[in-house]
Amino acid sequence: MACSGRLATAQQFAEFWCDPSPPLTPDEQATIERALDMASADVYSAMSASGQCDCTLAGWATNYLAKLAIIDGAVLQYCPCRRVLASVEDKRMWLDWVSNELLAIRKGDLAVCDGATGNDFPSIAIAEMALTSFNAARILRNRYLRSL
Question: Range of 40's domain?
Answer without folding.
Answer: 10-107
